[in-house]
Specification:
The structure is a single chain. By secondary structure, the protein is an alpha/beta fold. It has a single domain, classed as Response regulator (Rossmann fold, 3-Layer(aba) Sandwich). The protein is built from 6 helices and 5 strands, in the order αβαβαβαβαβα. Helix 4 links the parallel strand 3 and strand 4 (about 95-100). Helix 3 runs parallel beside helix 4 (about 80-90). The termini are close together.
Length: about 140
């Protein structure tokens, strides 16, 4: 990938949508702002069920998300990021799914691919880690 392609990925000239699922609203807001600063159009939700429904809707409309960032542990009830990833994969086997967790004991941290994830963002992470992971997955 040449410099102009990388620049287009992060200078706002590319408006790929990224779906963020996290049960903590402050984290959704911060991650959405980080994604906007990288030139993405973020959408967010608080639970796995909603993430699956949003993904299905956009996929069926022919406008799938470039990536989906899923919180692994959801404390408010409902399906977690692992189950949401499984259901999204059933809709779109080529979806780009990123696991996000702050729980260091999570088995997903050891091998995210086994659970259907293309990448991993261990919390806390910064803009640099997010940018590097998205660059590697979407290039």
């Amino acid at each position: 990938m040449d410099f102009s392609s990388i620049k287009a990925l992060f200078d706002g000239s590319k408006t790929d949508k990224v779906l963020v699922m996290d049960d903590e609203e402050p984290l959704r807001l911060v991650l959405s702002q980080m994604l906007q600063s990288l030139g993405f159009a973020p959408e967010s939700c608080a639970c796995g069920e909603e993430a699956v429904e949003l993904y299905k809707k956009e996929f069926e409309a022919g406008t799938p998300y470039a990536a989906v960032i899923l919180d692994i542990v959801v404390t408010g009830g409902g399906i977690d990021g692992v189950k949401a990833a499984e259901e999204i994969r059933a809709v779109d086997p080529h979806a780009t799914l990123i696991a996000s967790t702050g729980f260091c004991e999570s088995l997903v941290l050891k091998n995210p691919a086994i659970y259907g994830f293309n990448g991993l963002l261990p919390k806390p992470y910064g803009l640099g880690e997010l940018k590097n992971l998205l660059t590697s997955l979407l290039s």
